[in-house]
Design a protein that fits this description.
The chain is an alpha/beta fold. Helices cover 53% and strands 13% of the residues. GO terms for molecular function: DNA binding.
Length: 215
């Protein structure tokens, strides 16, 4: 059973999500929070596998709550918001968010995202990737120089595929290799580039910096 915390100051949102998620046989909403500080305290005091966290909340916003939750607990955070601002995306990723989705999604996509982050995959919605890519291209003009990173041709292909938001299965199909090989390549890339999760690979490609800071 995957234990979920919902953090949003809109009770209509948390109430609706709680009903939807509890209908899934392997998901259980174990609590709700109205601000980031409540969410953090709940994760400290209870076993929570995944926290769905809104960006705009009183007392402590979702970005800072994500940082505290991921630093001091084992809870995985998915940002769930109506605000697709690139600055929030970058900072939330830097703070350890494993997913970033818009609230107007089909509930099934949210359910799938929860399962994906539990399998150590990072999930960011395609529309958000597109905006992030466009905004950072306008800022820095060019993608990261992959040759300067001393990557092999296969590693370059993996980086570009991850930056498109493709899953391991989609990358495997694109490159005609197995999913296991993709996973191994991504793990090796993370070690080689000094990064902690796959989303940082995409940020590196877009901005030239793996920690989410565009120059």
């Amino acid at each position: 059973m995957i234990r979920i915390l919902l953090a949003d100051d809109n009770s209509f949102i948390t109430g609706g999500l709680e009903i939807i998620l509890n209908m899934e046989e392997n998901l259980e909403v174990v609590g709700t929070a109205k601000n980031g500080e409540e969410a953090f305290q709940f994760c400290l005091e209870h076993a929570v596998d995944v926290a769905l966290v809104d960006i705009r909340m009183p007392v402590l916003d979702g970005v800072l709550a994500t940082k505290k939750i991921t630093q001091e607990t084992d809870t995985k955070v998915i940002i769930l918001t109506t605000f697709d601002d690139d600055a929030f995306i970058l900072e939330a990723i830097q703070n350890g968010a494993k997913g970033y989705l818009l609230k107007n999604n089909d509930p099934k996509k949210i359910v799938n995202a929860i399962h994906s982050v539990m399998q150590e995959q990072s999930i960011i919605q395609a529309e958000i990737w597109d905006k992030l890519r466009a905004v950072n291209q306008a800022k820095v003009g060019l993608y990261a120089d992959l040759d300067a990173l001393e990557l092999t041709e296969r590693e370059k292909d993996i980086v570009k595929a991850v930056a498109k938001g493709l899953s391991n299965r989609e990358i495997a199909k694109l490159l005609f290799i197995s999913e296991g090989t993709v996973a191994n390549n991504i793990s090796a890339l993370l070690g080689k580039l000094g990064l902690s999760h796959r989303t940082q690979i995409a940020i590196l490609y877009f901005t030239g910096s793996g920690n989410g800071d565009a120059e």
